[in-house]
Design brief:
The complex is a heterotrimer of chains A (about 650), B (about 240) and C (about 300).
Chain A (H helix, E strand, L loop, with lengths): L13 H12 L1 H4 L3 H26 L7 H15 L10 H23 L4 H21 L13 E2 L4 E3 L2 E3 L2 H24 L1 H11 L1 H6 L4 H27 L1 E2 L6 H14 L4 H17 L7 H15 L29 E2 L4 H7 L10 H12 L8 E12 L2 E12 L3 E5 L6 H8 L7 E6 L2 E2 L5 H7 L1 E3 L12 H8 L8 H6 L2 H18 L20 H13 L5 E5 L7 H18 L2 E5 L3 H7 L2 E6 L2 E6 L1 H6 L1 H8 L8
Parallel strand pairs in A: 8-13, 8-14, 11-12, 12-13
Antiparallel strand pairs in A: 1-4, 2-3, 6-7, 6-9, 9-10, 14-15
Helix pairs in contact in A: 1-7, 3-7, 3-10, 3-11, 3-12, 4-5, 4-6, 4-10, 5-10, 7-8, 7-10, 8-10, 8-18, 11-12, 11-13, 15-22, 18-20, 18-21, 22-23
Chain B lengths: L3 E12 L2 E12 L3 E6 L5 H8 L5 E8 L2 E2 L5 H6 L2 E4 L11 H8 L6 H14 L1 H5 L10 H13 L5 E5 L7 H16 L3 E5 L3 H7 L2 E6 L2 E7 H5 L2 H8 L4
Parallel strand pairs in B: 3-8, 3-9, 6-7, 7-8
Antiparallel strand pairs in B: 1-2, 1-4, 4-5, 9-10
Chain C lengths: L1 H35 L6 H18 L1 E2 L2 E2 L3 H28 L7 H23 L4 E2 L12 E4 L2 E4 H23 L1 H11 L1 H6 L4 H27 L1 E2 L3 H16 L4 H21 L5 H15 L14
Antiparallel strand pairs in C: 1-2, 3-6, 4-5
Helix pairs in contact in C: 1-5, 1-6, 1-8, 1-9, 1-10, 2-3, 2-4, 2-8, 2-9, 3-8, 5-6, 5-8, 6-8, 9-10, 9-11, 10-11
The chains are: A alpha/beta (about 650), B alpha/beta (about 240), C mainly alpha (about 300).
Chain lengths: ~650, ~240, ~300
């Protein structure tokens, strides 16, 4: 068991620290000449740049084409603050953070305008921004000389860090690689933190991320600004090393080079990206005689990697720590095929472990509810749906819907496809805005809440067609659900403060605890398995676990047993009851399988054409002729 | 009467690595009206997608008029006699009713006949004629359904697939819809229909297949299925 | 007062010339976006290749800058071959770099097109050098036809040529799209690619045709601008591509009439901006318009807002 995610990884991998230490200590002294010394330094700059871009494009999946402009903003800010150009001579240790913050703030402002745009539009806005930036650099030398035009700015103050003077190339490379180490630690800590998980969730499925309580707009903005800040930081370090700054340092080609580094390394893969940066910094020097072909090759490589290895060249080289992909153990049936609705791979071990009570719901539901139940249905409304109306074009999807969900109740909604059931969930969870009416939760009108606010308020949901973070592991999917119940922010995550440590430990424990609610189906090696490798039924379970991780009072389950076989359906039935009985969750469930509905429901609502056509106990509803007609169709028994 | 038009023999199908269809065997003969029933995620739509070549069978094969079409692209399959009224109708929103109809008939060789056939569609669906130059997106749900059916029929199919024709229609329109389907069938069009509205579908169908988690669990004449005790269980995942 | 009016008219004429070219480029973006929902970053390079092809043709059929054939024939040949070359390249790009990624995440497709763009640009840089290629066309146009005076406005022959070719191409495209089966198939594919396949349309073929048309128009734009400014270099595609994209967004991406209108609007805006700002800021104005439109009205001036279904 100890192999599986038992330890929390917050600190960087030891091998990587050794790499940086070696780079810092040994490499400068073995380099043959100043030329290679400078390549070594530039490599450090590219490592920083690639790590920063990786946070935006890799972690969060934003195609940021203004990245190189932020690099430039950092560089020019340094030139302004630390040269004769404006006569400002700030000390290096003061100028450096200002440069980073200026670039970060620029990123924040640009992001404010455009972060809501879809991916490719964001790419274009940022590309346009970087063009404007370059044009301004070239032209803002008249009437007042601000940028120095095409000649740039040169001759900066000598760097003095306390009493150390940075003069020799060795000094510079040490400085640069120290900064790179710093960026590496920041990248690693952020990736391992709730912030990194939030970013990854957005990359995988923005809507789902929103519905588990992640303010996606804001987190994207932070990601964008963080990347800009690191670019600005790298920019300041770079120009101080170059002792000059020109518009051409920040042209589109540079951006493409950094993108190639990140993509070859594998988007999101920190070690891969560092390897990508190192290789692409040194390779061109080795292949100098083909210099003219360099950019052409980069372009070709970009296309080839996207087609052949979209996860990067270094995604699965065995033996390299951290570079290896996860061991995948998909569950298969005897024929070697993954089966949609069974867990044969696991069932032999698990069946005996599953609480037998759970499988006996049909016959023994009463006794079970009596035995383990801590919570029973109250008579106080927790969620009130008031006169809800929603039109899609000409179609009235929700038509004056009005009902209450009581505390600790399990209320089922049944009805034919297209009756408006999922649409109702989308309104409650804030994805759609109703045309009329209100959703009241604990006396609070949440009709105009965005999805993440709804989740934060205590209403979680699952989706009919599953919206998991497919490339993330099982446990990371669940941990992402803890986002809205944790607070550790950037500084806390980067410095790994007590708050961060406590929260991370708790998040980890809580995620395991929630996953253990499904017996052994999702424990052990499954923690680290990618959810895309799971069976359909297990993915449904992970989605419920993710919703449960947000500590909901109300859980909206959209066809939790769809695609499950009868055995799994019985388990799910027991599980839904247990969620209420033992954990006190109030549940609104859409379901087609009537034996499940019968076993779990305190009350049943039947919907058709966006309206309630019957409600009451299952027995009452099942007898209602209107219901039978709506569900099985009219002309029910032609023979009669 | 028993001239098979469409046959599925031992078809398995997967989405990525997840298998969703297991050993599907079906025969649809000329002139029949067959319905394919089952709960959500039971594989009904996937079966249609496999027939249309959108999902490729990983085992078994699909035969159209005796020739295998398992490896053919969708457009080939459509050109050779399979037509579909898709789920949610999929009307081209920024084309007029007439343009939508013309697209349905576009691949036909007998161009001279098309205009006449469009006229006969207007006889079948008089309402469409009054909307002839309106854009697809402004039509009501019922009108869109009529347009989708007319569009599919205009390709002169050997077999017409219908995916949830009653979905999202008001009760009055559902009745009308099934009447029209029955009519079209009586005029000689072979139909395979996926439908939630089981009783209604069975009441007009000749035979039915019932799917559950990707397998055919029941296959019989419609009359027998209507009164079959296992029907509700298979369809609703449990006894009422 | 009269002066200002003349100056403005002059700028509007210049704007329409460039606007027509932007429209041609924008059509390529918008059509590809329509069928594949992707931004073809490499589209600007097809424009550049169009310009270069024109120059190669001109070189091939000139001795000491004097054309060896009828001038009208040569200009037509330049335009036609440029369109052909760009179309061919568009096909290759679609086949090699985009089709394998049809089902991949959009970001991969975008990055792939970025890679294609870099590749072509640097391919030309490597084999043709960075130096600007000059079009020596002084012998192409008869003395009396170089400039036309309309009121106080001077219009060069090349501007007339550019505007008329743009008009002809756009009118031709409109006819194809509205009237022919191919055009209907393109519209159907753009509106709902799966439903189009249900209608028996070979959507793969339609995507190829869309790349063909879009790339050819891009190539035409490239050679026309090169003739107008009598020069071309390896880097022109980048800026032109961004302009064309701006035009497409302005008109609402996915809409062909929108792309035409957006192109003309952008051209005129830019030309007018030159009267008020130093000309170096012309592009700043264009890109600011782009950002403003995307932020304030992402569906474009003529586009419709769509509601994403969950």
């Amino acid at each position: 068991m100890t192999r599986f995610s038992q330890q929390l990884k917050i600190g960087p991998n030891a091998g990587m620290v050794v790499f940086f230490a070696l780079a810092l200590a040994l490499i400068p002294s073995i380099l043959p000449n100043n030329y290679w010394q400078s390549i070594f330094s530039i490599t450090g700059v590219y490592v920083m740049l690639a790590l920063g871009l990786n946070m935006v494009a890799g972690f969060t999946g934003l195609l940021d084409l203004a990245y190189i402009a932020f690099f430039g903003i950092g560089g020019y800010t340094f030139a302004f603050l630390s040269s004769d150009h404006f006569g400002l001579h700030l000390p290096f240790l003061l100028a450096l953070p200002i440069c980073a913050l200026t670039a970060g703030a620029s990123g924040f402002l640009l992001g404010l305008t455009s972060i809501r745009l879809r991916g490719d539009y964001l790419a274009i806005v940022t590309l346009a921004f970087s063009q404007i930036f370059k044009l301004l650099l070239l032209n803002l030398d008249a009437p007042v000389n601000i940028t120095g035009g095409v000649n740039g700015i040169y001759g900066f103050d000598m760097i003095r860090i306390f009493f150390i003077r940075i003069i020799s190339p060795e000094n510079y490379s040490t400085l640069i690689w120290t900064c790179a180490l710093l960026v590496f630690v920041v990248a690693f800590r952020l990736k391992a933190s709730r912030i990194g998980r939030g970013w990854n969730a957005i990359r995988e499925d923005e809507l789902a991320a929103n519905t588990i309580g992640i303010n996606t707009t804001r987190m994207k903005l932070y990601s964008f600004a963080t990347g800009a800040m690191i670019a600005g930081f790298a920019g300041a370090v770079f120009v101080s090393f170059q002792d000059s700054v020109f518009p051409n340092n920040f042209d589109f080609q540079q951006l493409v080079i950094v993108y190639c580094m990140v993509i070859i390394g594998g988007l999101g893969n920190i070690y891969g990206v560092i390897a990508g940066a190192v290789v692409l910094s040194i390779l061109p020097e080795v292949l100098r005689e083909y210099g003219g072909l360099r950019m052409m090759i980069y372009g070709g490589v970009l296309v080839a990697v996207m087609i052949v290895r979209p996860r990067g060249l270094f995604s699965s080289i065995p033996g390299l720590p951290g570079l290896t992909g996860r061991v995948k153990r998909p569950d298969k049936d005897e024929t070697g095929k993954l089966r949609a609705s069974t867990d044969l791979y696991y069932s032999r071990e698990t069946k005996s472990d599953i609480d037998l009570d759970k499988c006996r719901t049909d016959s023994g539901s009463n006794s079970m509810a009596g035995a383990g139940a801590k919570f029973v249905r109250q008579n106080t409304p927790l969620l009130k749906i008031k006169n809800l109306v929603l039109n899609f074009g000409g179609l009235r999807a929700i038509d004056d819907l009005d009902f209450n969900l009581h505390t600790n109740e399990i209320l089922s909604i049944i009805g034919p496809n297209g009756a408006g059931k999922s649409t109702l969930f989308n309104i409650i969870s804030g994805i759609y805005k109703s045309d009329h009416g209100q959703v009241i939760y604990k006396d609070m009108d949440i009709s105009s809440h965005t999805p993440h606010m709804v989740a934060k308020a205590g209403i979680a949901r699952t989706f009919q067609n599953l919206r998991l973070f497919n490339d993330l592991s099982v446990i990371d999917n669940v941990k992402a659900g803890r986002f809205c119940r944790t607070r550790a922010f950037f500084l806390s995550a980067v410095l790994n403060t007590g708050l961060n440590k406590r929260e991370e430990r708790h998040t980890h424990e809580r995620a395991k605890e929630i996953l253990s609610m499904f017996g052994k189906r999702l424990t052990g090696y499954r923690y680290d398995q990618q959810v895309s490798q799971l069976s359909y039924a297990n993915r449904r379970r992970v989605e419920i676990a993710r919703a449960m991780a947000t500590d909901p009072r109300v859980l909206l389950l959209d066809e939790p047993s769809a695609g499950m076989n009868p055995q799994e359906t019985r388990e799910m039935t027991a599980f839904i009851k247990e969620l209420r009985d033992r954990f006190g969750v109030t549940i609104l469930v859409i379901e087609h399988k009537l034996n499940l509905v019968k076993a779990v429901s305190d009350r049943v609502i039947v919907m058709d054409y966006g309206r309630i056509i019957a409600q009451g106990s299952y027995e009452d509803v099942a007898k209602d002729p209107g219901v039978i007609e709506a569900y099985l169709g009219k002309k029910g028994n032609r023979g009669d | 009467m028993t001239e098979p038009i469409l046959e599925l023999k031992g078809v398995n199908a997967c989405y990525g690595k997840i298998q969703v269809l297991y050993n599907i065997n079906m025969v649809i003969n000329r002139g029949e009206l067959i319905c394919l029933l089952g709960g959500n995620a039971s594989g009904k739509s996937t079966t249609l997608k496999t027939i249309l070549g959108i999902v490729r069978p990983t085992a078994g094969a699909v035969f159209l008029n005796g020739d295998t079409i398992s490896k053919k692209p969708t457009n080939y399959i459509v050109r050779n006699g399979v037509s579909i009224v898709p789920e949610n109708r999929r009307i081209f929103p920024r084309m007029t009713v007439l343009e939508n109809l013309e697209i349905g008939a576009m691949h036909r060789q007998d161009r001279g006949q098309v205009n006449q056939d469009i006229e006969s569609m207007f006889e079948l669906f008089p309402r469409l004629k009054t909307r002839i130059s309106r854009q697809g997106m402004v039509l009501s749900g019922g009108e869109q359904q009529m347009l989708a059916m007319a569009r599919a029929l205009l390709s002169n199919p050997d077999i017409l697939l219908m995916d949830e024709p009653s979905m999202g229609l008001s009760p009055a329109l559902v009745d009308q819809q099934f009447e029209i389907i029955e009519n079209i069938n009586k005029k000689g069009t072979t139909i395979l229909m996926v439908e939630q509205n089981a009783n209604m579908a069975l009441s007009i169908a000749d035979r039915g297949y019932v799917l559950q988690t990707g397998e055919i669990v029941l296959a019989d004449d419609a009359d027998k299925l209507l009164n079959h005790s296992g029907m509700q269980q298979a369809y609703l995942g449990g006894e009422l | 007062m009269e002066d200002i009016f003349a100056q403005l008219s002059q700028q509007v004429i210049n704007g329409i010339t460039l606007g027509g070219v932007y429209a041609l480029i924008a059509i390529g973006y918008t059509m590809v976006y329509g069928v594949l929902s992707m931004l073809n970053f490499a589209h600007g390079e097809l424009y550049m290749i169009g310009g270069f092809t024109g120059w190669w043709v001109l070189q091939l059929f000139s001795v000491n800058h004097v054309p060896v054939m009828n001038a009208a024939l040569l200009i037509s040949l330049m335009i036609i071959l440029s369109m052909g070359m760009s179309a061919l390249l568009g096909l290759v790009i679609e086949r090699v770099a985009y089709r394998p990624l049809r089902n991949a995440p959009r970001m991969n497709l975008l990055l792939s097109s970025l890679g294609v763009s870099i590749f072509i640009q640097n391919f030309i840089l490597y084999f043709q050098g960075a130096k600007v290629k000059v079009f020596h066309i002084s012998h192409l146009i008869p003395e009396g036809m170089r400039l036309f005076h309309v009121g106080g406005v001077v219009v060069s022959f090349m501007r007339v040529l550019v505007i008329s070719v743009c008009l002809v191409l756009m009118a031709g495209l409109t006819l194809v799209i509205k009237r022919t089966n191919i055009g209907k198939s393109i519209r159907a594919t753009a509106q709902d690619i799966e439903a189009a396949a249900f209608m028996g349309i070979d959507t793969d073929k339609i995507i190829v045709i869309v790349f063909l048309i879009g790339s050819a128009l891009g190539g035409a734009a490239g050679v026309l601008v090169s003739l107008l400014f009598t020069q071309v270099d390896y880097y022109v595609g980048f800026q032109a591509g961004l302009k064309g994209f701006t035009a497409a967004v302005l008109g609402g991406i996915g809409s062909i009439p929108g792309a035409m209108a957006g192109g003309l609007l952008l051209g005129v805006c830019e030309a007018l901006a030159v009267t008020f700002f130093p000309s170096a800021y012309k592009d700043v104005v264009a890109f600011t318009i782009l950002i403003a439109v995307l932020v304030l009205r992402p569906q474009g001036l003529l586009g419709e807002k769509s509601r994403d279904k969950v």
